[in-house]
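Task: sequence design from structure.
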């Protein structure tokens, strides 16, 4: 009889091992999970929010569920949800904190920890009959949750708690109000992060590494398209939506990603229209200056241009033809490829106000690569101080 029991235990153990060999087995995190919808803006904004959410999850010591990236494609009425790991590796993130993809979570964890009858949406405060915590069709985050067949059965309002777990003992307050044993899942209708990115979360970008597919595309473009040698990457944000946004600079000195160069309290100055939408004169003059300075040690052979509208290829080629330096861009409309190429450049000039440029700046900071911004710091042109000019010797 004893022998039979031992054999039964052995067989059960073998069956468990066999089962885990052919299906994914996941250990439930007793400290809970954080889900959120990256529902504000396009990729640059979502990347800011992702790093903030990663920092928030780390502060609460809950596993962060990696959401798909929300993309808005021309001609399509609804957003597209792109799996997180299409663009970035998951492994490097685990060097910092516990993470799992949304697809894995919904398949292997949600049936046990987050069944349909327990799906509560988290929102800061109620907004009445059109409360976005209800996640109903027509709201910005509806398509996101629809992708995973998630319907919320109620809402939870967590004010006055906030996302800054670096100060005010905020993590403890979250734990006391929402203990993991009672609230294993915190599902936010928006990202649990500030925008622009909180200063303390900027260094987390070093854990965000491009997927092998994106990296290979970037390396292939650089090797096969650009001339051999050093190159400068520039970001020109000049689409009509950006032109209109820059009109608000006088009233919004900290617009979008401006704190990345101006400081969070404008301690390094105030945003100017030229920082937001640099003129052709500023672009060419500043580019020539950087080329001249860089060429002392590492001659520049090309300029890579990323833009949402006008790449200014002809204008740049005309301005740099005496130096035999040519401008290039990708043939495809692939912003992630542009970002990966800019992150690899010998030097980068970006837009201080743009979160797209901010992504490149953070990646380059993590690698120790040099960067600067258009029209920053502003040229001094007061009485007795002449503006510095670069002779047209290129």
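Answer:
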């Amino acid at each position: 009889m004893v022998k039979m029991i031992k054999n039964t235990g052995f067989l059960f153990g073998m069956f468990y091992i066999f089962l885990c060999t052919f299906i994914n087995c996941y250990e439930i995190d007793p400290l809970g999970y954080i889900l959120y919808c990256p529902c504000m803006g396009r990729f640059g904004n979502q990347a800011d929010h992702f790093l903030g959410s990663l920092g928030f999850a780390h502060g609460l010591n809950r596993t962060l569920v990696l959401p798909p990236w929300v993309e808005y494609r021309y001609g399509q009425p609804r957003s597209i949800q792109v799996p997180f790991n299409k663009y970035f590796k998951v492994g490097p993130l685990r060097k910092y904190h516990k993470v799992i993809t949304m697809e894995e979570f919904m398949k292997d964890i949600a049936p046990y920890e987050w069944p349909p009858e327990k799906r509560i949406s988290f929102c800061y405060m109620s907004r009445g009959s059109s409360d976005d915590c209800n996640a109903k069709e027509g709201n910005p985050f509806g398509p996101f949750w629809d992708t995973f067949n998630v319907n919320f059965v109620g809402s939870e309002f967590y004010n006055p708690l906030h996302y800054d777990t670096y100060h005010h003992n905020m993590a403890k307050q979250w734990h006391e109000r929402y203990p993991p044993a009672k609230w294993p899942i915190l599902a936010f209708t928006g990202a649990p992060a500030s925008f622009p990115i909180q200063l303390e979360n900027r260094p987390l970008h070093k854990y965000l590494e491009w997927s092998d597919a994106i990296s290979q595309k970037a390396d292939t473009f650089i090797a096969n398209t650009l001339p051999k040698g050093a190159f400068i990457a520039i970001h020109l944000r000049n689409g009509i939506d950006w032109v209109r946004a820059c009109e608000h600079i006088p009233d919004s000195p900290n617009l979008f990603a401006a704190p990345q160069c101006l400081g969070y309290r404008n301690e390094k100055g105030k945003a100017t229209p030229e920082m937001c939408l640099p003129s052709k004169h500023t672009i060419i003059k500043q580019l020539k200056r950087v080329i001249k300075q860089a060429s002392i040690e590492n001659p520049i052979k090309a300029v890579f241009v990323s833009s949402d509208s006008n790449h200014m290829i002809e204008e740049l080629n005309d301005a740099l033809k005496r130096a035999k330096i040519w401008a290039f861009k990708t043939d495809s409309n692939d912003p992630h490829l542009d970002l990966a190429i800019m992150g690899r450049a010998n030097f980068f000039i970006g837009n201080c106000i743009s979160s797209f440029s901010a992504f490149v700046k953070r990646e380059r900071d993590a690698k120790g690569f040099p960067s600067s911004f258009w029209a920053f710091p502003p040229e001094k042109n007061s009485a007795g101080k002449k503006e510095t000019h670069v002779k047209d010797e290129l």
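Residues 1-19, 135-140, 382-393 have pLDDT under 50 and may be disordered.
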